[in-house]
Amino acid sequence: LNSVWAWQGKFYASYSHDTADKIRMFDKNGGSLGEMPLPPMSSISFGQQRHEDTTCLVSISGFQEEGAIYT
Predict the structure, then answer these.
(1) Which pLDDT belongs to residue 33?
(2) Would you give the end-to-end CA distance of the chain in angstroms?
(3) 3-class DSSP string for the chain
(4) What distances in angstroms separate CA 45 from CA 2, 27, 29, 60, 69, one per listed residue?
(5) How confident is the model at residue 31 (pLDDT cuts 50, 70, 90)?
(6) Which among 36, 4, 8 has a CA at the least distance from the CA of 20?
(7) How far is CA 41 from CA 21, 25, 37, in A?
(8) What is each CA distance from 31 to 8, 20, 26, in whole angstroms?
(9) What are the angstrom distances between the C-alpha of 24 and each of 38, 64, 66?
(10) Which of 18 and 56 is assigned the larger pLDDT?
(11) The pTM is what?
(12) Mean pLDDT, to the nearest integer, of 6-28?
């Protein structure tokens, strides 16, 4: 487990598995909402966000795909 943060009423848990970053999403009661779809063998980072923000910045990079930034 690398980090956990709350945003827009959900919890996001970032962890490493088989040399790639993964993100699992949970509701406010801890129920699983699944895994965020990411390209294989990716590294991720998140920009700063406030609870009231409706978008967040996600940077994804990896060996198999060119890096990208999403909001």
Answers:
(1) 97
(2) 23
(3) CCEEEEECCEEEEEEEECCEEEEEEEECCCCEEEECCCCCCEEEEECCCCCCCCCCCEEEEECCCCCEEEC
(4) 11, 21, 25, 7, 9
(5) very high
(6) 36
(7) 7, 19, 12
(8) 15, 23, 5
(9) 11, 22, 23
(10) 18
(11) 0.74
(12) 90
Tokens of residue 56, six digits: 């967040």
How many CB atoms within 10 Å of residue 42?
19
42 with 35: CB under 8 angstroms? no
Residue corresponding to tokens 């945003």: 7
40-63 mean pLDDT: 79
Distance, CA of 58 to CA of 47 (rounded, Å): 6
Structure tokens at 17: 């598995």
